[in-house]
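Hello again, I could really use a second opinion on something today. I've been staring at a protein lately and its backbone has me curious. Please have a think about how the structure follows from the sequence. I owe you a coffee for this, so here goes:
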Amino acid sequence: MPSPVFKVPQSVLVVIHTAQRDVLLIERADAPGFWQSVTGSKDTEDEPFERTAAREVAEETGLDCEAPDHVLTDWGLQNVYDIYPQWLHRYAPGTTRNTERVFGLCLPERRLVTLSAREHRAQIWLPWQAAADRCFSPSNAEAILFLSRFA
């Protein structure tokens, strides 16, 4: 019997925004009302955070971080937080904390994105302060509030 594959407790948070500080939020399919930026775990411990960020953005929104008018930036911020109880089963037994690296992806304008139906059910663009208020995750809201320093 194969051993279970657990998530790596290292992830990215990617705040997708315009130069005018409008922010894209996506609603989780498994938790209606939970609005967030793009998030996702590394596939392997040695996967670079930047690669994880680009992969997760592509998987969750269909956006290409390497497109000529897109700018992916590592904000040099990390959050360490307790994993929400409803998602602990995805991690190895005894794993209770996750380290999250924060990135920004600047787009020239608001765009409709192609959501992964398995992961998300809706999208909305909001001014940055309203987006921070809408997030269910305190670390996500805090990252959006940092946008004024990075954009």
Notes: Residues 5 and 92 are 8 Å apart (CA to CA). The two ends are 50 Å apart (CA to CA). The mean pLDDT is 94. The beta strands are 10-18, 22-28, 35-36, 38-41, 71-82, 97-107, 120-127.
